[in-house]
Amino acid sequence: MTIARKVEERIRKLQLIHQIVSDPELLSLLQEVLADADSKNGLALAPQEGEPEKSGPERAVESPKRGNLLRRVLDTANSMPGPFDVNAIEQRMVQSGFPFGAKSPKIAVGSALRKLERRNMIRILTRGSGSAPNIYRRLTE
Q: Could you give the CA distance from residue 124 to residue 129 in angstroms, rounded to a whole number?
């Protein structure tokens, strides 16, 4: 590849980045995807092509589709009879057999609760501090 071709390719990529950061919706989506990838606290994903498939207890029977964690946390929150915290949501999801792919399901649930609160789908009743978690309420109360 010639130097001119490399420069053209780099310019094209920079233009794509500029296009993404100029669009607030695309930028928000990119930030969510990068945060999910960085935290590695989401759902178990199917192995990539060429990657060996795991077996045994460490792999969920069925890998849920992307976005299922957020939907399930919202559904669980909406089913709670009163105020709730991350521990109550995590406990209810574990009891229902939700296949967490995260090392720490509590971190995954906490991240989902914060996203739902930012999207005005749930409300914080009491902001936690230290080891005390935030207390949330559903909007349909």
A: 13
